[in-house]
Amino acid sequence: MSIEIPRPILKGARALVTGIANEHSIAYGCARAFHELGAELAITYLNDKTRGYVEPLANALGAQIFVPLDVSRQEQTDALFERIGKEWGSLDILVHSMAFAPKEDLQGGLLNCSAQGFGQAMDISCHSFIRLARASAPLMKNGGTMFTMSYYGANKVVPNYNVMGPVKAALEACARYLAYELGPQRIRVHAISPGPLLTRAGSGIKDFDRLLAEAAQRAPLGELVDIMDVGYTCAFLATPLARRMSGETLYVDGGVNIMA
Ligand code: NAD
């Protein structure tokens, strides 16, 4: 059956984008792409320290809702969704783009990872996606699309990715199970797996420069991806052009993942 595509393709869509720390953040690429393609935005920032970096970006994109969100504080999640419910009454797109692990647990190798550090990494980087999905779903009255950011290290061993490997593996599995549970509500769920990008989170990985250089060298497309590549992919997946796709992990990595 053919479909009607609005022009611009996200005209009228309402998108919640979490995880912008600065202009290098993957989430910022998503917000920019959505804005360019006609969506309205709700943008969150972690805390007062990051607010100064995020606020000018949110203003430039005309974000209608701009509130703090530390996912380890449930009251902030509640306040965010209450605000979206009051102001918009509906939601079409959710972007979950965040990760955290204590430095000593991230850099010390999986064998040495503490139970507490593992739990914290899992809670902030993975279970928070379930919490945001649970709060978003009732607002996605006409269906919707949810995204979370994973990495190749979920499926293959990437030296120095350490505890984030198992955490991202769980995250990709969550995307599949959420896609299954939310499918009847016409909510589609995807994990996006970008190639390495120089961001604050990226620079927490030991020898990240080497990872970047190797990716550029191995990519069939011959170059690194940028945050807009990720944003445009999410934008496409949020349109009816991708209406029968759900539960996928989609690589946006210039093809690096196909190489031996
Ligand atoms: P980034 O540092 O710009 O973004 C990470 C975000 O996580 C920040 O905005 C930070 O505020 C947020 N965050 C951390 N703890 C939080 C909490 N308790 N509550 C709410 N937000 C919290 O780096 P990024 O590279 O844009 O990372 C975004 C996502 O993309 C992460 O899941 C990361 O693992 C993933 N990813 C990154 C790369 C890369 O190479 N940079 C590649 C693949 C996937």
Describe this structure in words.
- The protein has 260 residues and is α/β, with parallel strands linked by helices.
- It has a single domain (14-251), classed as NAD(P)-binding Rossmann-like Domain (Rossmann fold), CATH 3.40.50.720.
- Helix content is 41%, strand content 14%.
- The protein has helices at residues 26-36, 48-60, 74-87, 103-107, 115-136, 164-182, 208-218, 227-238, and strands at 14-17, 40-45, 65-68, 93-96, 144-149, 187-194, 249-252.
- It has a seven-stranded parallel beta sheet, with helices on both faces.
- β2 (40-45), α2 (48-60) and β3 form a beta-alpha-beta unit.
- α1 packs across α8 (227-238) and α5 (115-136) packs parallel to α6 (164-182).
- The longest helix has 22 residues, at 115-136.
- It starts with 13 loop residues before the first strand and ends in an 8-residue tail after the last strand.
- The mean pLDDT is 97.
- Nicotinamide-adenine-dinucleotide is lined by residues 19-21, 24-27, 46, 50, 69-72, 97-100, 124, 149, 151, 194, 196-197, 199-202.
